Amino acid sequence: MFESILKNVHEKTPLVHCITNYVTVNDVANILLACGGSPIMADDEKDAVEITSICNALVINIGTLNERTIATMFKTGKKANELSHPVILDPVGAGASKLRTDTTFKLLEEVKFSIIRGNISEIKTVYKGSGTTKGVDADISDAVTEENLDETISFAKELSSKTNAIIVITGAIDIVADSNKAYVIRNGHQMMSMVSGTGCMLTAIVAAYCAANPDNHLDAAAAAVSAFGLCGELAYEKVVKNDTGTSSYRTYLIDAMSKLDAKTLKGGMKIESR
Amino acid sequence: MFESILKNVHEKTPLVHCITNYVTVNDVANILLACGGSPIMADDEKDAVEITSICNALVINIGTLNERTIATMFKTGKKANELSHPVILDPVGAGASKLRTDTTFKLLEEVKFSIIRGNISEIKTVYKGSGTTKGVDADISDAVTEENLDETISFAKELSSKTNAIIVITGAIDIVADSNKAYVIRNGHQMMSMVSGTGCMLTAIVAAYCAANPDNHLDAAAAAVSAFGLCGELAYEKVVKNDTGTSSYRTYLIDAMSKLDAKTLKGGMKIESR
Amino acid sequence: MFESILKNVHEKTPLVHCITNYVTVNDVANILLACGGSPIMADDEKDAVEITSICNALVINIGTLNERTIATMFKTGKKANELSHPVILDPVGAGASKLRTDTTFKLLEEVKFSIIRGNISEIKTVYKGSGTTKGVDADISDAVTEENLDETISFAKELSSKTNAIIVITGAIDIVADSNKAYVIRNGHQMMSMVSGTGCMLTAIVAAYCAANPDNHLDAAAAAVSAFGLCGELAYEKVVKNDTGTSSYRTYLIDAMSKLDAKTLKGGMKIESR
Predict the structure, then answer these.
(1) For the whole model, what pTM was predicted?
(2) Exposure of A128 by Cβ count < 10 A (0-12 exposed, 13-18 middle, 19+ buried)?
C-alpha cells in the first residue's frame, strides 16, 4: 500500500504551492523536486491566489511571517479550500510569540486544513492556545517518549477530532493520527535536528504525498513521514562512512529522497498502527 | 573567441546586481562567484537604485515578485538603462499568473533589456501575451525538439527583432538569438531540471558574461549557456561516479563552474550557428 | 581559555535571533546549529520584539535591508539592550549606498552594540561616515596587510573606544579589538571569499560565542573568528584532497564547524595579542 503511495507521487508530479519562510525555502523547493513533486513559491496576494489555482496542494508555513504574507495565507488558504486542494499547516514557532500563536488560531478558524504538522510543543500550542516552544525547537519537557506515547496518541486523536485535520507530530518518535487511527513511526535519526529546515521539508513532502493520494491522506502522510525518516537514516550511514558533518548530512538527506524507490521504502519503514 | 569571453569574466570580475527571488538567491550568489563575477542583492527602492550604479549589470528575476520589489524593478531598470548597463530579464512563471504576465509586459515597455532568458513557455508568453506555463516549468507541449527547431529559431529571431533584446530559450536544446543570427546549443543534462534554480543561476551567469563582454552580447550569452550546460554534464559524471543524488548534483554543478577554464570550455562546447 | 569558550557554547546552546539578509540566511541558520547554537529568524516588528526576548543574543545584519525590516532592527535592538543581550552589528555594504550607511549610523546612535563585525571597508565607513565599499566586498586598496597592521590595530582600538563595541575586522588578517587590547588572527583561507555569506556566518558564530560567554566578549569573539578561520583551513584541505570546488568548500566549512572540538581549536589557533 505504502509503495503505491510513493509511486503515485512519482507518476503525478504534484505541483505544490508553498507560502513558506525564507530561511529554508530553497531546501523545501529541492526536497519537493527530490520526492517527485514540483515546487512553486508565491506570497504576494495578487499573485498567490491565482498560483494556488494551478497547483495540487498548498503549504502554509508561518516561519518568517509578516503582515503582507499573513494576509496572503488567508486568501490563498480559502481559495485552496474552494478548489478542494489539500492545505497543510506548519505552525513554526507557535507558542514562541503572540503573533505566531494568534495567526495559527485565526488560520485554524478561517481555513480548513487537511494536515497540521509540527513538533510536539507547536502541536500542544495548537491544542491549548498557549505553549512553551523554545524558539523553533520543541521544549525538552514536551518530548514524546515511550512512557508518554499512549497519552500523546490519545491527545493527537482528540486534536484531530477537534480540528478535522490529520495531526502529524514529529520528533524522536513520530505520530500521524486522525480521530480514529494513529501511526507510530520510528524512522529518522537525531542528526536531522542538526539541519535547519527538516521540519519545513517534511511538511512539503507530506503535501506532495497527499496531493498525489487524494483518497487516503492518513496513509499518505504516514508514508511521507516514514520516507523522510528513512532518508535521514540512510544519510546518517553516509556521514559515518565519509566522516563528514552536518552540511554533508543535509546533502545526503536530499540525495536519498531523490533516489528513494518503493522497494527501499517498503524494506525500511518502521511503522505500527494504533 | 568563446575562450576569450570566459577570460574576460575572470579578469574583470563583473559586479552583478540581482533583484531576484528568495527561493534560489543563495545559489545565484554562489554561481556568480563561481563563474568569476561578484553578486550584490538589493531590492529596496532607496537602496537598489544607488547599488545598481556601482554595478556592471542588472538581473531582474520576477520569481517571487511583490508590490514593493516590482516598484524597485522599474526604477532600477531605468537607472541601469541610463548608465548603459546590460539588463537581463528572467520572466519566471510568466503565463502562470496575471501579475507575472502583466509585470513582464510593463517591464518590456518601460525598461530596455539586453537579454531575455526563460524556458520556452515563458518566452512564448513574452511573445504572445498569454501562456500555458505550468508553474515555473515549461509546458511539455511547448518543448523545443529537433522537429520544431527551425520554427523555434525563426520565432526567437522574430521576438528579438520585436524586443531589441537577445533571446535565450533554455531546455533540452538551447537557443540564443538576435534578429539575424541564432546559436543552437546542445550542452546540458536533464538532471539540471531536478535542481531548483538552474534557470535563475544561468540568468545571472549570462549577466556576468555580458557585463564583461560589452561589445558582443550575443556570443557572450551563447558562451554562458554553453558553459553552464557543460558544467551540467560534468556534474552528471560525478553523480554517476559517486552514486549520489540531486543535492550533490547541485554542489557538483557549482563546483564545476568554479573550476571551468577556457580550454575545458573550448573542448566541451556543443554549439552551432544558424 | 579559548577551549572553555567553545565548551560553553556547546553546553549552553545559545539561542540567537537573527535579523539578516535573505541571500545567506540558510547558511547562517546551519552554521549556528553547527557551532553549537540555535537559530531563530523573525523580522516582523510584531513578532521580532517578542522573539528576541526568549533569545540569548541578537544579530542585526543589514544585507538586504528594507523599510519594514529597518524599523524592526531598531525596535528589536532596543529591546535586546533592555534585556542586556549581546547585540552584534554586521553593516553589510555600508558605504555602498546612502541607505546602508545612514542606517548603520542611526543604529549606532540608538542601539548599543556589543560587537561590530565587518570587512575593512565597512568598518572604515563606520569610522569615517563615508566609504569606498565595492558592493559587499572590501575595496582592495583598504586591505589589511603586514605593512599597515599596526596602524589598523590602532584604528580598531580607537573605533572601539568611540563606539563602546568590540570591533571585528575580517579579511586575510583578522583583528578583534576593544579599546585596550587587540587580537591578530591569522587563521582562514582565501577560498572563504569564494563562498557567499562567510562574513554573515561568522557574525552569527560571534553572537553565539558571546552569548555563551557573557563575562568575556573580547576573548569569545576572538575564539569565534579563529574557530571559523580554522574551519576554513580544514575545508580547504578537503577541497584539495577531493579535487572539488567552491560549493563543496561551503559544505566542508559547515561540516568542519559541526565537528570542531576544543582540542582541535587549541591546536589550530593562530592568534597573538597586541
Answers:
(1) 0.97
(2) exposed
> Which positions in chain C have a beta carbon within 8 angstroms of at least one beta carbon in chain A?
15, 22, 25-26, 29-30, 33-34, 38-44, 46-47, 50-51, 54-55, 68, 250-259
Nearest to C16 by CA among C67, C91, C101, C76: C76
What's the pLDDT tens digit per position in C3-48? 999 999 999 999 999 999 999 999 999 999 999 999 999 999 999 9
Q: Cβ–Cβ of B42/C97 closer than 8 Å?
A: yes
Amino acid at C127: Y
Chain A residues with CB inside 8 Å of C51's CB?
93, 96-97, 135
Rounded CA-CA distance C67/C75 in Å is 13
Rounded Cα distance between C8 and C213, Å, is 7
Task: Give residue-wise pLDDT tens across range A147-161.
Answer: 999 999 999 999 999
Tell me which fold the domain B2-273 belongs to.
UDP-N-acetylmuramoyl-L-alanine:D-glutamate ligase (3.40.1190)
ipTM for the whole complex: 0.96
| Distance, CA of C274 to CA of A208 (rounded, Å) | 58
Looking at residue B238, its amino acid is K
CB proximity list for C14: less than 8 A, separation 6 or greater = C37, C38, C56, C57, C207, C208, C211, C212
Domain ranges of chain C: 2-273
H-state helical runs in B83-196: 98-110, 120-128, 149-163
Residues of chain C with a CB closer than 8 angstroms to some CB in chain B: 21-24, 26-27, 63-67, 93, 96-100, 134-137, 194-197, 244-248, 250-251
Give C93's contacts in chain B (Cβ within 8 Å).
Answer: 40, 42, 51
CB neighbour list of residue B271: distance below 8 Å, 6 or more residues apart = B2, B183, B184, B185, B186, B187, B222, B226
Q: Do C91 and C200 meet the contact criterion of CB atoms below 8 Å apart?
A: no
Residue that the C-alpha cell 520585436 belongs to: B162
Rounded average pLDDT per 10-residue block, chain A, 274 residues: 95 98 98 98 97 98 97 98 98 96 97 98 88 68 90 97 97 97 98 98 98 98 98 98 98 98 97 95
Task: Report the alpha-carbon distance of residue B260 to residue C134 in Å, rounded.
Answer: 25
pLDDT number for residue B106? 97
CB contact under 8 A, B196 and A15: no
Picking from B11, B55, B34, the residue whose alpha carbon sits closest to that of residue B19 is B55
Residues 6+ apart with CB under 8 A from C63: B41, C20, C21, C23, C24, C90, C92, C93, C136, C200
* Spatial CB neighbours of A23, under 8 Å, sequence gap ≥ 6: A63, A64, A196, A197, C25, C26, C29, C39, C41
CA distance C49 to C44: 8
Q: By the 8 A CB rule, do A119 and A167 touch?
A: no
